[in-house]
Amino acid sequence: MKKGAKRKGASKAIRKGGLWKAAFPVGTEWDQLDALYEFNWDFKHLEEALEEGGLLFGKKVFLFGCTEPQLVPFKGANKILHVPAVVAVVSPFPPSDKIGITSVQREVEEIIPMKTMKMDWLPYIPLENRGRQVDRMNFQIFVLGCTRRRAALRHMKEDLVKKYEYCLPYFYQPFKEDELEQSTEVQIMFPSEPPVVCEFDWEFDELEEFVDKLIEEEALPAEQKDEFKEYVKPQVRAAKKANREAKDARRKAIEEMSEDTKQAFQSMKFYKFYPLPSTDTPDVSGVKVTCLLQIV
């Protein structure tokens, strides 16, 4: 078989399955999913990257979808649409088994197992092979899938439904300090009337001066000065302890890793794909780069 013919066959196998649609768009409101699939977005560059000769060919790749609300022109009018994107993670093993949930309303990111949200990495089986017996051990392409049925949403608590709107895969990188380790700030919510809500940075703020400024700004009653200081001190100690424990846990994880695992973490790469321009879809070239992006 000629090389060109082989590549064409591989392309057909991938494209017939609607690869970008197979990757669950995490963090997207459930009521926006139908609108997302109204357009036949062009992700040909993603498909070509996975074909023979492509950037991702022969590598084990994990794909997940996401969306970005954008104001884009379409048929003479500007519309706010959820523009899809697909992130490809090159890794010899699943890059994450956890979901991070964060939003403006949440003070801290919540990290939970993917299975709690009924999500998991699933081998991508092209449409033409789905009725056959296939060897799942030899799959190179995996997509993040969600088995939660939309019909079940009406029986779920609103807080759980909202979690789907604010979630993204959580990627643990043991060779980089996370925000917790680097932060020297502690969130303060002092029980007063009204409550005193502020951020105290133990590296840059001197507690006595910090409290005096709050009193000067009439954010804290003068008679509660000592009480406020005693409230802040254990908060700072707890935050420092959490930082130390996070650093120790990361250091221990690295020490216990095999050399192969260390190399895998260090060589893990992220690529983000936006839809290509198409006559059948809104033009997103003015708001996002439509070519392949590598995030290191």
Q: Which features would summarize this protein structure in a list?
A:
296 residues, alpha+beta, six-stranded mixed β-sheet, three-stranded antiparallel β-sheet, 9 helices, disordered C terminus, coiled coil
Order of helices and strands: HHHHEEEEEEHEHEEHHHEE
- Rg to the nearest angstrom? 24 Å
What is the end-to-end distance?
37 Å
Number of domains: 2
The stretches of 5 or more residues where confidence is low (pLDDT under 50) are 1-13, 289-296
The percentage helix is 25-40%
Shape: globular
Total number of strands: 11
Strands in their spatial order, largest beta sheet: 5-6-1-2-10-11
User: How many strands, which pairing sense, and closed or not: the largest β-sheet?
Assistant: 6 strands, mixed
Q: Overall mean pLDDT score?
A: 79
Multimeric organization? single chain
Structural class: alpha+beta
Classify the beta-strand content into a percent band. Answer: 15-25%
Count up the helices.
9
Tell me about this structure.
InterPro entries: HIT4 (IPR039313). Keywords: Coiled coil. Residues 236-263 form a coiled coil. The chain has two domains: 3-174 and 259-295, no CATH class; 179-256, no CATH class. 19% of the residues are buried. The chain is 30% helix and 24% strand. It has a six-stranded mixed sheet. With 296 residues, it is α+β, with helices and mostly antiparallel strands.
